[in-house]
Design goal:
The complex is a heterodimer of chains A (about 110) and B (about 120).
Chain A lengths: L2 E3 L4 E5 L4 E3 L2 E3 L5 E8 L6 E7 L7 E2 L2 E6 L4 E6 L8 E9 L6 E2 L3 E6 L1
Parallel strand pairs in A: 2-12
Antiparallel strand pairs in A: 1-4, 3-9, 5-6, 5-10, 7-8, 8-9, 10-11, 10-12
Chain B lengths: L3 E4 L2 E4 L5 E7 L5 E8 L3 E10 L2 E4 L6 E3 L9 E3 L8 E8 L13 E2 L3 E5 L1
Parallel strand pairs in B: 2-11
Antiparallel strand pairs in B: 1-3, 3-8, 4-5, 4-9, 5-6, 7-8, 9-10, 9-11
The chains are: A mainly beta (about 110), B mainly beta (about 120).
Chain lengths: ~110, ~120
Amino acid sequence: AQTVTQSQPEMSVQEAETVTLSCTYDTSESDYYLFWYKQPPSRQMILVIRQEAYKQQNATENRFSVNFQKAAKSFSLKISDSQLGDAAMYFCTLTQGGSEKLVFGKGTKLTVNP
Amino acid sequence: NAGVTQTPKFQVLKTGQSMTLQCAQDMNHEYMSWYRQDPGMGLRLIHYSVGAGITDQGEVPNGYNVSRSTTEDFPLRLLSAAPSQTSVYFCASSYRPGTGGRRGTEAFFGQGTRLTVV
């Protein structure tokens, strides 16, 4: 069975500062994909960043980057230059390559303080 | 481009009532799924479909039925609502793995339905 663990139910950061959200996962598959989804108060789920397990290079999307440690099964999200609009619930998510079923962590609520 | 459209956005039901949550997508995605989101639980898979006429159970299927008669639509039916089904429900769609070389593609979500069963 696949599992995703987010050990930080809540985090806070000052505007313009950097914050890292933690995620660990477990899977016996070698072909899998990891995602971070953002859920703002509007409830809409938005893809932030995607990582293929077979790629060693860490994914980046503008101010968002990941630290993918495959051996440790760790997939943390770093948000640089935090903005008020980054305030949201963030979900770490895993899927196997041959399936589109998503396994979600319990989420981390990020607060951005002005 | 509408993406994934879910209706209704809010619903209150009495225990024992039935209802259908509607989901439609216009991206020609083969894969569609329903999740429920409960506080402190993340999202959990209820049912999914890999194409018209094919459905299967996810992690928490009890009390729910689905059907997939067209590629576009994937309704979720609550047969006899219970307070334990109070939740926020999300429909999602994506490409089926392998089609056109796609794997691990982005899932697109509807805006969610907040359901309260009293």
